[in-house]
UniProtKB/TrEMBL annotation:
HAMAP family per the UniProt record, alphabetical: GatB
Sample GO molecular function, one term: transferase activity
UniProt record, GO biological process: glutaminyl-tRNAGln biosynthesis via transamidation; translation
Lineage summary: Bacteria, Pseudomonadati, Bacteroidota, Cytophagia, Cytophagales
Keyword Iron belongs to the record: no
SMART domains per the UniProt record, alphabetical: GatB_Yqey (SM00845)
Name this protein carries in UniProt: Aspartyl/glutamyl-tRNA(Asn/Gln) amidotransferase subunit B
Keywords for the protein's UniProt record, in alphabetical order: ATP-binding, Ligase, Nucleotide-binding, Protein biosynthesis, Transferase
Amino acid sequence: MLSEELKNKYQLVIGLEVHAQLMTESKMFAADANQYGEAPNTQISVITLGHPGTLPKVNRKAITYAIKMGLACNSEITRHNVLARKNYFYPDLPKGYQLTQDKGPICVGGTVPIQLPDGTKKEVILNRVHMEEDAGKSIHLAEEVDTLVDFNRAGTPLIEIVTEPDLHSPEEAYAFLAEVKKLVKYLDVCDGNMEEGSLRCDANVSVMLKGATELGKKVEVKNMNSFRNVFRAIEHEHERLIGLIEQGIEVISETRTFDANTGLTASMRTKEDLNDYRYFPEPDLSPVVVSDEWLNSVKATMPILPRDLHKKFVEEFGLPHYDASFLTESKDVAMWFNELCSKTQNYKAASNWMMGPVKSSLNEQSLHMDDFPISTDSFVALIALVDDGKVSYTAASQNLYPEMLKSTTESPLEIAQRLNLIQESDESSLKPIVEEVLAANAAKVKEYKSGKKGLMGLFMGQVMKKSQGKADPKVATKLLTELLEN
Ligand code: ADP
Ligand code: MG
């Protein structure tokens, strides 16, 4: 562990490269299915395998998805897009080249808003978002002598989101990844699943003396399959790089691999033996031209973004930022809540229900909001029962709500009646109970009248007990006060 003093002497600099697999039905340049988890080498056409004489064809949906991401990040959209061959040899690369955009990415610049756990906000500056295709996968099995290769993934459309060296802590990197995941899911362009490799991240890390004008030499860390591991890898590199510099050892530009078991990184290859990829425009594809018409149609179908919903929840519904952040964390929750609030005015109560009972039950039953059994109409009725004083919040959350999760045919009112949860708010039926309680506590009533007002709680407790928890506290208080004060 380095001292805080040493850490403060240096500025940590991070740039992230995030690959997101696009959820198109077919591949980037061929009609084979873009489907994860199928038997190896079953989703491979001759085009994907690059057989002689085959011709690629661009998947317009993949381009549309890339444009969506660019629009969501306020990037500038390139109209004339050239796909280039990046030539290299690797066993999982059937064509011997990967189609990518080496110059002129489809989305130039842009920003992604992040918020740190301490509330700090920042707009992370993007360098670009470009399109490319994925490679296949080499598989090393313990029981096999040979390395196996599965080409199913080859040709899967990807976007690569590249930041400027604009991040300065593992926390910022983590928040950025979380925001990118949220964005692609809101946009419905990628499922954001890091374990299945739909979202992959390389971290470029360097350190420099605070105040220096030139960035330090960077290392690029690969093979991190969770946000947490990206965080750990950056933390490790931060310390390692400062340690090297402090010892007078020169940092070399290299690619390193992260080991999740040890939390350490190890050198894979130095950037000195730089590949020459001999990029050239793909001769079998004409450039992809994004027309005004195409761009406008994508703009017209942009879904509402998390930051817009956050703003709406704060400004229109008057909710605290904390609530809005929780409610926009996932799209299905945000959309459901948004619908709920089109049917009730009690936004804060709705939010409290979401952050409390709904969240707990989703966690307990590992449910997604998409599978939530209660309709927004029923939920509004539930909120109204509490607002109208018909059912106490305690009874509603502990008895009525769990029952609503099980039964979708009865209305909340019917369930409340069946479970005998309706509060006695009718004065004439509560009055005898209140009178009975006071008569049974004559001595305490005397004490109350001589000034011991704190006894009100005791009387209330007895009324609640006698009414089996169904007395409306407001009405009971009113009756008690009336009877005690004269
Ligand atoms: P390369 O040519 O090695 O791929 P690029 O200039 O394309 O490098 O940048 C790749 C990523 O590395 C980008 O996210 C960029 O922001 C980041 N990056 C570049 N220089 C540095 C640096 N000195 N420290 C940290 N990150 C950096
Ligand atoms: Mg790179």
